[in-house]
Amino acid sequence: MAFYNSSKPILQTAFLVFCFASFTAMSRELIERKTTLWERLKLDEEEGTTSCWDSLFELQSCTGEVVLFFLNGETYLGPNCCNAIRTIEHHCWPTMLGAVGINSEESDILLGYCDASENNSPSPPQPVNQTSHVMNP
């Protein structure tokens, strides 16, 4: 009987804490919205996100060039590969190249190469002025 009387306030306090916690949990509105993979990947938001995924798939197809670039020091990446790297680095998530196994240091090197090769590419030929070739009799 002595044990029952001494533990009664503890049991009452525990019961009250349990009740308040239950009422608090029940009073908040639980909205469970199920999202699709399409929504989680943000594929339906804008055109730019789709180009990010397209660029990632393009980069995946040129991983052979990237491997040779780092292993053999071969300094050539095709224009499609560089376009994919530039798109991913400039317009997409910063860690997206990690999806194909490229770390941040390697992605900086690739981006530097691709940006430099874009700036050093030959400019398109200038149109010939047709009037300068006309001969006067």
TrEMBL record:
The keyword Cell membrane does not apply. One of its GO terms (cellular component) is extracellular region. The keyword Lipoprotein does not apply. It is found in: Cytoplasmic vesicle; Secreted. Residues 52-115 form the Prolamin-like domain. It holds the Pfam family Prolamin_like. Its main location: cytoplasm. GO terms for biological process: double fertilization forming a zygote and endosperm; regulation of double fertilization forming a zygote and endosperm; regulation of protein localization to cell surface. Keywords: Cytoplasmic vesicle, Fertilization, Secreted, Signal. Belongs to the plant egg cell-secreted peptide family. Involved in the regulation of gamete interactions during the double fertilization and to prevent multiple-pollen tube attraction; mediates the redistribution of the gamete fusogen HAP2/GCS1 to the cell surface after secretion upon sperm arrival. This is Prolamin-like domain-containing protein. It comes from Cinchona calisaya.
